[in-house]
Amino acid sequence: MAVNLSPPRPGDLLPVKGVKLGIAESGIRKSGRKDLLLMSLAEGARVSGVFTQNPFCAAPVQVAKEHLASGKTPRALLVNTGNANAGTGKTGIAGARASCEEAARLIGCDTRQVLPFSTGVIMEPLAVERIVAGLPACVADLREDNWARAAEAIMTTDTIPKARSRRAQIGTNNARVCRD
């Protein structure tokens, strides 16, 4: 339970140039809740990943590592909540790949430029058809100022969404950091 926290005010969350966020209610675990997030990254964006060292990692972790190792620059992050797609074997890997394929098709990039992320219940098959059905709504919703809604879309057991933004000057450059 969140103590002394209040949800972020959308106006306090700074857009990050070149990052657009689209959210959908796809019914992955429950209907009527935001559970799918697509982050579109502009050409030239830089992405890095830090992953578990455990060899028994979830399907999205395996696929994301594979996609980063391909040398293709990521153009999108795809996050679903309600199902972690962990402990699902070859079926889970196929589901993560299929989700990436559809996201890539909709935004016009190579499949290996989409990194999948999942959080939620483990050991249950991923509802790929619900993700695929929800992706057009995510694409239609892509906006730079969607950080507050994105914070809602990635909630699992949290009782309120959490997100913060900061501006910083690095040398002569201005930077914005937004974190869900």
Overview of the molecule:
The chain is of the alpha+beta class and 180 residues long. It has one domain: 4-Layer Sandwich (L-amino peptidase D-ALA esterase/amidase). 28% of the residues lie in helices and 23% in strands. The protein is built from four helices and six strands; from the N terminus they run E-E-H-E-H-E-H-H-E-E. The strands form two sheets. The protein has a four-stranded mixed β-sheet with strand order 1-2-3-4, sandwiched between helices. Strands 5-6 form a two-stranded antiparallel sheet. The model has no long low-confidence stretch (mean pLDDT 91).
Please report the number of helical segments.
Answer: 4
Give the rounded overall mean pLDDT: 91
Question: Within the CATH hierarchy, at the fold level, what is the topology?
Answer: L-amino peptidase D-ALA esterase/amidase
Task: Please compute the radius of gyration using only Cα atoms.
Answer: 16 Å
Describe the global form.
globular
Q: Which CATH top level class fits?
A: Alpha Beta
Just name the CATH architecture: 4-Layer Sandwich
- Span from first to last CA? 17 Å
User: Can you give the helix content as a percent range?
Assistant: 25-40%
Q: For the report, how would you describe the main beta sheet?
A: 4 strands, mixed
> What's the CATH superfamily, by name?
L-amino peptidase D-ALA esterase/amidase
Give the oligomeric state of the chains in this entry, treating copies of one chain as homo and distinct chains as hetero.
Answer: single chain
Low-confidence stretches: none
Question: What class do helices, strands and sheet pairing give?
Answer: alpha+beta
Order of helices and strands: EEHEHEHHEE
Lateral strand order in the biggest sheet: 1-2-3-4
Number of strands: 6
Question: Beta-strand percentage?
Answer: 15-25%
* Count of distinct structural domains: 1
